[in-house]
Each structure stands twice: as C-alpha cells, then as structure tokens.
Amino acid sequence: MSCVGVDASIYQFRERAMLHPFMELQPEYEYWVAHVAPNPDRIDEVDHVARRLTCPDALARLKLVFDATKIPAVIDIYHGNVIHDFAALKAAGILGVIHKCTQGIRYADPLYAARRKLATDAGLLWGAYSFNTGEDVGAQVAEFFSHADPDAQTLMALDFEDNPHSQMSLSQAQQFLQIADEKLGRKLVLYSGNRAKDLLGGQVDQFLGSHRLWLPQYGAVAKVQASWKTQWLWQYSETGKLPGTDGAIDLNFYAGSPDQLKQEWAS
C-alpha cells in the first residue's frame, strides 16, 4: 500500500477519532501497535485501520494522528497571554475562545472587550469566565454580567478552582450559578477539577451536575467527579503552543464535531 493510501487510512482514523472521547481509542491504538501491525494478515481485526500499511513511516503517521485526537478545539486566555492573530488561531483549527472577564467584584480583565471583537471578527466562538472569590455572590454575578455583556452566542462560565487569597465555598458556587442561570436564561458552564472533587468527594450533586463540566485535568486520562458522567470540555494542557501566539496557552479538547460545538456553545 502506498503512502497515499496510508494518508487515506489516517484521515478515516482521525475522522472517527474526533467523534469520540480521546481515551476510547487508546486501547484500540495500543492493540493495533502490539498485535496488528506486526501481523499484516490480521489487519482486518481493527476496523479503522483495516488495510495493509506498507509505508515505512506508517506507525509514526498513525501515532501522530492518534495524538491529534486531542487537537485543541478551544483555548482559554486572560490578559497575560500574548495573542497576535486570532485569524491564525482560526486557521490552525481553533473553534472558540473563553476569556477571563472578572475576578470577584474588584477586577475586570482589561483586554476582554477588545479581544472579543477581534476573535468574533475572525469567526471564533466567544466565551467569558468569572474567576471565583469569597466575596458577596450577588455582587460577583452583577460585576461579571456588567463586563461580559453576554449576547445569545456568548458562553458564560464560573471558574471554581482553588483561590488561596479569597476562596469561594461550595454553597457560594451553587448560589452564583443559581443567580447567574436565572439572569442569563440558560445554565452556565462550570470549570472545576480538584476543587469540586475535594468538596464533594463521592457525593452526587444534582444541581451542579446539571451544568456542563469544563474539566481541568493535565495528563492522559480525564477523571470527573461523581456528579457528572463525563466532561463537556477538557482542559488537558496549560503549555500549548499555537500560531498567532507567544508563550504557553491553555488547550481544551472537545469530543464532538465543530457543528456540535457550535450548537452547544451557548445552549
């Protein structure tokens, strides 16, 4: 089989992979490497590579495509991230941007509004997040909405992570979501990893679990708290490198198609 044929196989593999959570395909890939690649007569055992791959770098190419199942669909940024060109991000395959908007009641990100126009003009989905503090919850929500100025296409999220300077409690996070959901007319996205896991343990919180989970989890496996069956968005790296940027960027994986992400973005 020619390298052109390998590329076709890789394309089909990637198309299938992008429709599934990343880890679902790892056992299949490892099985292919261990059992199918060394035995071409068994190639039909794995449907997504059911071909004889004779190109010298077929394994390397397939590994690259396997890694590409974690292609970042979304980046999250704040004023400290250096962004030169949102159009370059769009061209590189990024679909959406979630930008820090506020932190508590005394801070608004100075680049939020300007970057919103640049990103949306480039055809990117736009979102805003509020970084939690232990300050008055109603005032935090009011500050967030005042600066985020959400429209029907704006994703809105609460960043509920460890904040040693002014920590939001679990009940405050629930209150924030209740107030903000009602004000927005739809549910916010909840960004939380260890914070939710530490506070809830194995308990199932139906209210929190009714919000889409944006999970920060660096490593090969995404592990969610018991209130969720899976994450909606997976922040899998904080050291990403992308065109149009300088320095490290947070990268987020979405398991569905671009059309699905667009439909769900501000739902």
What are the key terms here?
267 residues; alpha/beta; TIM Barrel; 8-stranded mixed beta barrel; two-stranded antiparallel ribbon; 10 helices; 11 strands; 19% strand; globular
Structural summary, described in words:
The chain is globular. It starts with a helix and ends with a helix. An eight-stranded mixed barrel has the order 1-3-5-6-7-8-9-11. A two-stranded antiparallel sheet has the order 2-10. It has ten helices and eleven strands. The protein folds into two domains: 3-69, no CATH class; 74-264, TIM Barrel. The chain has helices spanning 3-17, 26-36, 58-67, 86-91, 112-121, 137-148, 170-184, 194-200, 206-209, 258-264; strands at residues 74-77, 82-83, 96-103, 107-108, 125-131, 155-159, 189-191, 213-216, 233-240, 245-246, 249-253. The chain is of the alpha/beta class. It is 36% helix and 19% strand.
Total number of beta strands: 11
The CATH topology assignment of the largest domain is: TIM Barrel
Radius of gyration: 21 Å
In spatial order, strands of the major sheet run 1-3-5-6-7-8-9-11
What is the CATH C level class of the largest domain, in words? Alpha Beta
Distance between the termini: 45 Å
Uncertain ranges: 1-25, 40-56
Element-by-element helix/strand order: HHHEEHEEHEHEHEHHEEEEH
CATH homologous superfamily placement of the largest domain: Glycosidases
Helix share of residues?
A: 25-40%
Main sheet summary: 8 strands, mixed, barrel
Percent of sequence in beta strands: 15-25%
Shape: globular
Instruction: Please identify the structural class as seen in this structure.
Output: alpha/beta
Number of helices: 10
Whole-number average pLDDT?
82
Q: Supply the CATH architecture of the largest domain.
A: Alpha-Beta Barrel
